Amino acid sequence: MAEHLAGILKLLKQKEWVDLSHAFYPEIPHFPVFDNVQVDTLFTHDDGFFVKQYCFPGQYGTHIDAPVHFVKGKRYLHELSLKELVLPLVVIDRSVAVAANSDYELTVADILDFEKEHGRIADQSFVAFRSDWSKRWPDPDAFSNKDTAGDAHCPGWSLDALRFLVEERNVAAIGHETLDTDSSVAYRKAGKLVGEYYILEQDRYQVEVLKNLDKLPPTGAVIYNIVPSIQDSPGFPVRSFAILP
User: Fold this and answer.
1) Distance CA 183, CA 106 (A)
2) How would residue 187 be classed by pLDDT, with cut points 50, 70 and 90?
3) Distance CA 16, CA 25 (A)
4) Which of 133, 189, 202, 238 is the most exposed place for a label (fewest CB within 10 A)?
5) Is the distance from CB of 92 to CB of 114 less than 8 angstroms?
6) What does the pLDDT average to over 127-150?
7) What is the pLDDT of residues 60-83, one digit of tens each?
């Protein structure tokens, strides 16, 4: 068995690995009600060792949202199983549509069109929405994309698409390049993040602010979401990466 696992690891390391997480530092785009991360140097090499202290919201940078983030009584981060954090990866590319319309919402029709070309989305997959929004990183103004009235215009998932993925395809998790699950227009219309509430209410998790989705195939890759097991945390910055087939 040990030799078998060593062989699997050797094979995996021969594949291409793609980092899906942005670098983490104070000035990066983040949810507007949060302060910038605060970084202080506690000790230097002159003291014998180098240590920094970080103060930041859990939902900062590329991060994972546990179900309890929006829904009381749902699971915390430490309650997500290790096997849930490693999943088959599906990438639905709507970057051309988003380039033409920054308010674009991924639809059920988009999912069905994807399946016509790439096959049915497998049970317990991680489905990522490729919008190429991450190419605006790290400019906060470009990322929020506000008009002259101060209203943001960012793409997102439609509620119907999320319902379809959960109820018809039984996906385990979703991910996207933007700061929110919902489009900015949908948020303003509803006055709340309806899509984000829905996906977390279904006891699924999500990863926000992903990058490099343009380097991934539509199917066949595997996503790893590596995150500390913090007791009773609703979310935390994550090191997500994909191994290509």
Assistant:
1) 9
2) very high
3) 26
4) 189
5) yes
6) 98
7) 999 999 999 999 999 999 999 999
Band (pLDDT 50/70/90 cuts) for residue 2 is: confident
- pLDDT tens digits for 196-222? 999 999 999 999 999 999 999 999 999
- Report residue 214: phi and psi, to 5°: -70, -10
CA distances from 188 to 25, 27, 31, 61, 154 (A): 29, 25, 15, 23, 11
- Report the distance separating Cα 136 and Cα 139, nearest Å: 6
Helix and strand numbers (H, E) in the chain are 7, 13
Residue pair 179/60 in contact by the 8 Å Cβ criterion: no
φ, ψ for residue 98, nearest 5 deg: -70, -35
Instruction: Report the distance separating Cα 108 and Cα 114, nearest Å.
Output: 10
Quote the pLDDT of residue 3: 83
Q: 214 exposed, middle or buried (CB, 10 Å; 0-12, 13-18, 19+)?
A: middle
Cβ distance 206 to 196 under 8 Å? yes
CB 70 within 8 A of CB 197: yes
Residue with tokens 């509803």: 190
The answer for residues whose C-beta is within 8 angstroms of residue 83's C-beta and 6 or more apart is none
Instruction: Note the pTM of the prediction, 2 decimals.
Output: 0.96
Question: Using CA atoms, how far apart are residues 39 and 37, in angstroms rounded to an integer?
Answer: 6
